[in-house]
Amino acid sequence: MPFVKATALSCANIAFIKYWGRKDHLLRLPLNSSISMNLDNATTVTTVAFDEALPADEIEIGGEPASPHAARRVSEHLDRIRALAGITARARVASRNSFPMGAGIASSASAFAALTVAACASAGLQLDERALTILARQGSGSACRSIPAGFVEWHTGDTSDESFAESIAPPDHWDLRDLIAIVQTEHKEVGSSKGHEIAGPSPFAAARLAEAERALPVVRVAILARDFTTFGEEAEQEAIRMHAVAMTSRPSVLYWSPETVRIMHAVRQWRAEGLEAYFSIDAGANVHVLCQGKDAPYVEAALHALLDVREVLANRPGPGTQLVEHHLF
Ligand code: PMV
After folding, report:
1. Edge-first strand listing for the sheet containing 311-315
2. What pLDDT shows up at residue 198?
3. What DSSP assignment string belongs to 98-132?
4. pTM above the 0.85 mark?
5. CA 296 – ligand 1 centroid, Å
6. Mean pLDDT, to the nearest integer, of 312-325?
7. Which ligand 1 atom sits closest to the C-alpha of 140?
8. Which domains does the chain have, with CATH numbers?
9. pLDDT tens track for 229-284
10. What is the model's pLDDT at position 264?
11. pLDDT tens-digit profile of 251-261?
């Protein structure tokens, strides 16, 4: 059977209840369920073409050959798709991000979601959305949340089939904004894969897990009701809890830089002055500032006025991963 060339566009996502720590490392089953929003301005485009004539997978990221570590992860994911499709052909893969890689914007989420959808299409494998999320999850956990549209919940599950993601509200449900204050574009020191592995022994891990389980339905209801105050307070607390676990893991992981902490203080200061915004932080130093659409121009101006902020990446709720016509090769 001849293979087609296929290209997918995927958004990164920001989690309000986070995935940090796993109960099964091989299958990437998370300790707790999580909730996120796709980011319409932080995207990955990936083209895949399986080709019987290729001796090995050829993988290019951002116009350069992939590092050995990245190439291995991509090839392992292609192996999952080859096994499901019953094919052995190697593939040519090219991928491009609209944002800096490895700096606390979930590049692995959009990367593995786009890779999953493009590779399945190229292999002629037709899977429903739930099956695509289960497959994407095995490449990178948070990637499963970039497959469905808008606001998304990933159910922890006790088996691979139970650990899937689904949309809880479409992108136009709520004009929530995530303004990412970029303070660092270098590759982070400790990747999230390692972070998940060392999270368990933290003395705070069990307490954080209990709190994440309590907060998950609160955040879901707040999103559905567009209750920004409840939503923001819970999202900010959850980010702090995740970092408390990271800081108390062995070895300890400190993702915050002095710039990160200064922005955290600034956000709280603005809130005290009546500009309602909250922060979230992933596995990096950049700060995600959450606000409502009506306040976004003021929050963005305030962020630009801070000397620490190199760039602001403004996001609205984004669509799910989709096939597009514009191939990278
Ligand atoms: O999917 P991973 O292994 O890149 O882990 C993502 C971890 C966080 O971004 C910090 C939290 C989350 O739920 O997205």
Report:
1. 278-280, 287-292, 176-182, 311-315
2. 87
3. SS-TTSSS-HHHHHHHHHHHHHHHHHT----HHHH
4. yes
5. 25
6. 97
7. 1
8. 5-172+318-324 (3.30.230.10), 173-315 (3.30.70.890)
9. 999 999 999 999 999 999 999 999 999 999 999 999 999 999 999 999 999 999 98
10. 98
11. 999 999 999 99
Q: Which of 18, 19, 180 to mutate to test the pocket of ligand 1 (most atoms within 8 A of CB)?
A: 19
Token pair in block for residue 193: 């894969």
Helical packing angle, 107-123 and 129-139, nearest 10°:
120
- Number of other CB atoms surrounding residue 282 within 10 Å: 27
> Ligand 1 center to residue 122 CA distance, Å?
27
Identify each DSSP E strand in the chain by its residue range. 5-17, 22-24, 29-30, 34-51, 58-61, 64-65, 90-97, 151-154, 165-169, 176-182, 278-280, 287-292, 311-315, 322-324
The pLDDT, as a whole number, for residue 107 is 78
User: Dmax of the chain from CA atoms?
Assistant: 64
pLDDT (average), residues 29-51: 97
Q: In degrees to the nearest 10, what's the CA dihedral of 93, 94, 97, 101?
A: 70
Distance between CA atoms of 252 and 265, rounded to whole angstroms?
Answer: 23
Amino acid of residue 67 = S
